[in-house]
Amino acid sequence: MGLQKMTDPEKIEQLRQRLSAKYPSPLTTLGELVRFEMPALRWPFPQLLNLLEMGKYPRRFVGVEYYLSGKKGFIDRLIPAPEYYKFAFRWIAEKVYSFDRSPAKIDELLVEERNMYTETRKTLPKTGQPSFAVQEQVYAIKSELGNFFFSSRAVMDTIATLMNFLYGPSSPTFNSFAAFVKAMTRNDPLPHSITDGEIKNYLTTKIDWFFRLRDIRITSHTTNQSTLVSMSSQAAILEFTSITALKFMSWSSQ
Predict the structure, then answer these.
(1) CA distances (Å), 242 to each of 93, 103, 136, 157, 246, in order?
(2) In the 8-state DSSP scheme, what is residue 40?
(3) Strands 122-123 and 65-69: what pairing?
(4) Residues 146-173, buried b or exposed e (16+ Cβ, 10 A)?
(5) pLDDT tens, position by position, 48-98
């Protein structure tokens, strides 16, 4: 997903007119809407959300719009910057709920695998190699790990899109957490870049987990390694989101 900051009223209005022409009909014309219920989601930053709802900080972004777009055109939306945090917080809450489920499910599948090993283990006569019958559990574990890594990356990328809201209307925008890390840890910062020693130090000394999470590929040979990475990444993601939430709170209360 790409995020573009827009401040020119004329360009904003032109884009709004273009989107209105592109989507002239309400969604109900595409078919019958079906209602469904989801489990209650835990908001990622409840105290911060309350502070933003009750405070004046979002008013600093009046007149700023974010244009969200996807590569294939499935996302095409203009959102006022003062309202974007609500959209982002909801998205983060959904993804955190998703990856929170994976470790417990992986544990269940590993128990099933161990039981299968005990029940079906045999020794190959020619090589003396232990062998056992694997059914769908290995592939189910790989699916859960894939969901965990995808959801984790989505959470961090969404947090990156919030950085303009965190650091102020004149700060740069980021479409991915990798781009944010690269910009914040440069030895030769670009003009108008963000200066934040605390975050730069954190990203320089404690971000190895993110690159492992980004680069790992789920195969049968990496399933055990992926499980370990997923557990450590879960704790690290929660740590980083806590740090950014505290920064939000300190600035938004001013």
Answers:
(1) 14, 20, 37, 15, 6
(2) P
(3) unpaired
(4) ebbbebbbbbbbbbbbbbbbbbeeebeb
(5) 888 888 888 888 999 999 998 877 767 788 999 999 988 899 888 888 888
| CA gap 242, 112 in Å, rounded | 35
Give the Cα separation of 103 and 145 in Å (integer).
8
Alpha-helical runs (H) found in the chain: 9-22, 46-54, 81-120, 137-161, 163-167, 177-184, 197-205, 208-215, 223-252
Q: Which two tokens stand for residue 88?
A: 């982002």
- At 22, list the tokens: 């592109």
Q: How far is CA 110 from the centre of its chain?
A: 26
Residue 102, number of CB atoms within 10 A of its CB:
23
- What CA–CA distances, in Å, run from 109 to 12, 103, 224, 243? 50, 10, 12, 33
Residue 48 structure tokens: 């911060």
Using the 8-state DSSP alphabet, how is residue 58 labeled?
G
pTM of the model as a whole:
0.76
